[in-house]
Design brief:
transmembrane; alpha/beta; 52% helix; nSTAND1; flat; 642 residues; 11 strands; 6% strand
Length: 642
């Protein structure tokens, strides 16, 4: 067999070479070691088709090979062999895929969006009762999916109506959000059946089908971007246009917009998605304040808010609506009536934004919906229901692996959606199988590809910052007994070095890191082993990582104990850490820098105190010597007199 005929043949040839190095045991003997049939092992080394991962690893282990290395090789080969087939199917299956992959769910995706119907009902209930509702949660938990494919689809009367979003200049359309912006089940409520309703609902009352284009609630979607007031003006112009279309479709009835199923007729809805951009992208504090003032004015029904003075100061003026101007309440386009607001933002920014704007904090009190990790049953529906609607089934073994993995990973849900799409493209007949999932490289393969692509796209300075972030997060020991459990989250304050917050945001958008209120952690606990570059970093700097962990723990203990000076480093330990910091081996964070600075000051104070004590002792000794000299001289004189 020519080893150059293709990757599959080379793989099989290397398996045979591994068996030769093990002494060429007969396949029957090898089968006993591998707990696998001799026929399966023989086929694996034949090169006619790719063996399963289980058979490959059994073969390698029986021959004394490196199981981890061969697993990585198998995953790469499986992905390579499946690429052509997936490309052909991608063209054939355009528009038919039951999963959106890494792209965000939108309102048009409602018919393939399942899980967390109860959460959507809670959001709709809040919006019925309150004028401004905040949807918050950690990054990657599905807030945008909940609002876009859940709430907006219901408000807009189903996928056919569609929702167009805007972003301030310098950003893309909201429909082109960052990869992994929405996934099945991640706070992704309101799955619609093929007939348009939730399970147990009458047709026409679910997300999948609403009341039709003529009976929709006018909605507008924006993301703040760098200039939130500009995005606000454009969104409200769109809202006015949609309100006019709705009125025209019913013979010109003013403000009589028929609500979508389950939503009260309380007027149009403005959705501000990715509200954390008010801090992460908008650098103008004054514009941010005007934007929040406007949202609060809308929620409180005030006509004197910043939005009442035209597009330049709030975007609610007549120009924004083609001359329509404000309604009587001063809260929306003329003739539409009061406007409701949904603000979606990451939990790590929610407290800061409310602390910065007391009016916002007062308005949203009691109107906050926290989106958490989906329950196993919600994950099951998110995985199986879209496949069923597409005429496919999900193998039980695959379902068990997906649920067990996604349920215990803080940010595995974006990967779940992407993995499901690739698995569907590699389906066997109409079945999504575990073998197909493994052929994609699984979660680990997707993680490694994403991390490597992001790292290669950074400039040299940001690469060093990213490396420091990954080492800080990945260097902590896992809590699981087998070493594969969760790693303890790291405090957000440890990532406040210049340039690091911006890099952290890029890692969050790539779904590699999860930000919660005060903590940062890896999106997937397998990343330190799945990504070869990070694995090498951790292996090369093991001793430094251990020292860094000790420093971090000492700094936290010192800060917790009200900066007790007795807990500071001293002597040789302090000098050793200072040398590592000077050499760039250790990169201390905010609390650690303060800890080391306090230790250096304390050491300097100790040296000054020691010098003063030495001088005092020397002075006392000199004075004692002088007294002895005087005493001796006096004794000598007395003797001479005698």
């Amino acid at each position: 067999m020519d080893e150059g005929d293709g990757p599959l043949l080379r793989f099989a040839s290397d398996l045979r070479a591994l068996r030769d190095r093990a002494g060429s045991p007969p396949y029957r003997q090898l089968a006993v070691r591998a707990h696998c049939s001799a026929a399966s092992l023989s086929v694996a080394a034949g090169g006619r088709r790719l063996p399963s991962l289980a058979v490959t690893l059994a073969y390698v282990q029986a021959c004394g090979g490196d199981v981890r290395e061969w697993q990585h090789r198998w995953q790469l080969l499986a992905a390579e062999l499946a690429a052509d087939t997936a490309a052909r199917r991608r063209a054939q299956d355009a528009g038919r895929a039951p999963y959106p992959g890494a792209a965000a769910f939108e309102a048009v995706d409602a018919e393939r969006f399942f899980g967390r119907e109860a959460l959507l009902d809670r959001l709709v209930g809040l919006l019925d009762e309150r004028r401004l509702v905040v949807v918050t949660g950690p990054s990657g938990v599905g807030k945008s999916s909940l609002v876009r494919a859940g709430l907006l689809a219901r408000l807009a009367g189903g996928p056919a109506a569609g929702v167009r979003g805007v972003r301030a200049a310098g950003g893309g359309a909201t429909g082109d959000g960052p990869p992994g912006g929405g996934v099945p089940g991640r706070g992704a409520p309101g799955g619609a059946s093929a007939h348009g309703g939730h399970a147990g609902r009458r047709p026409g009352r679910g997300i999948g089908r609403g009341t039709g284009a003529a009976g929709t609630v006018p909605v507008a979607l924006l993301t703040p971007g760098e200039r939130p007031m500009e995005a606000y003006t454009l969104a409200l112009a769109r809202l006015g246009q949609r309100a006019g279309e709705a009125r025209g479709g019913r013979g010109g009835r003013a403000a009589g917009v028929s609500p979508a199923a389950g939503v009260s007729p309380a007027g149009p809805v403005l959705v501000v998605d990715q509200g954390e951009e008010l801090h992460t992208r908008c650098r103008d504090a004054a514009e941010r304040a005007r934007f929040l003032d406007t949202l609060v004015a809308v929620a409180e029904g005030r006509a004197d808010g910043p939005g009442a003075h035209g597009p330049g100061t709030g975007g609610l003026g007549a120009d924004a609506f083609g001359g329509g101007g404000l309604g009587e309440a001063g809260t929306g386009p003329a003739g539409v009536g009061p406007c409701r607001v949904v603000l979606v933002l990451r939990s790590d920014q929610a407290a800061a934004l409310q602390a910065e704007h007391r009016g916002l904090a007062a308005v949203v009190r009691g109107a906050v919906l926290d989106v958490g990790q989906p329950a196993p049953d919600e994950l099951r529906r998110a995985i199986t229901e879209p496949a069923l609607r597409a005429g496919c089934t999900v193998e039980g073994a695959l379902l068990a692996v997906l649920i067990s993995t996604a349920a215990r990973q803080p940010g595995a849900l974006p990967l779940l959606s992407a993995a499901l799409l690739e698995t569907w493209r590699r389906r066997s007949g109409n079945a999504l199988t575990l073998a197909g999932f493994q052929a994609t490289g699984g979660f680990e393969g997707a993680l490694a590809r994403t991390a490597e692509a992001l790292f290669n796209g950074l400039d040299p300075a940001d690469r060093e910052r990213a490396k420091a972030v990954f080492l800080r997060l990945g260097g902590r020991p896992p809590t699981g007994a087998a070493g594969d459990g969760a790693r303890q989250p790291v405090g957000r304050r440890e990532f406040d070095d210049p340039g690091v917050p911006a890099v952290l945001e890029r890692l969050v958008r790539a779904r590699l890191v999860v930000l919660d209120r005060d903590t940062v952690e890896l999106a997937h606990h397998a990343l330190p082993q799945a990504w070869p570059r990070l694995r090498d970093w951790l292996a090369e700097g093991r001793e430094t990582i251990v020292e860094h962990r000790r420093l971090a723990e000492a700094a936290r203990s010192w800060a917790t104990a009200d900066r007790d000076p007795e807990l500071l480093y001293r002597g040789g330990r302090l000098e050793a850490v200072r040398r590592q910091v000077a050499a760039g081996e250790l990169v201390p964070g905010g609390v650690e820098r303060a800890f080391l600075a306090a230790a250096v000051r304390a050491a300097a104070a100790d040296r000054r105190r020691a010098r003063r004590q030495s001088l005092a002792v020397a002075g006392i000794a000199a004075a004692g010597g002088a007294l002895l000299t005087l005493a001796s001289g006096s004794r000598i004189r007395r003797v001479l007199r005698v």
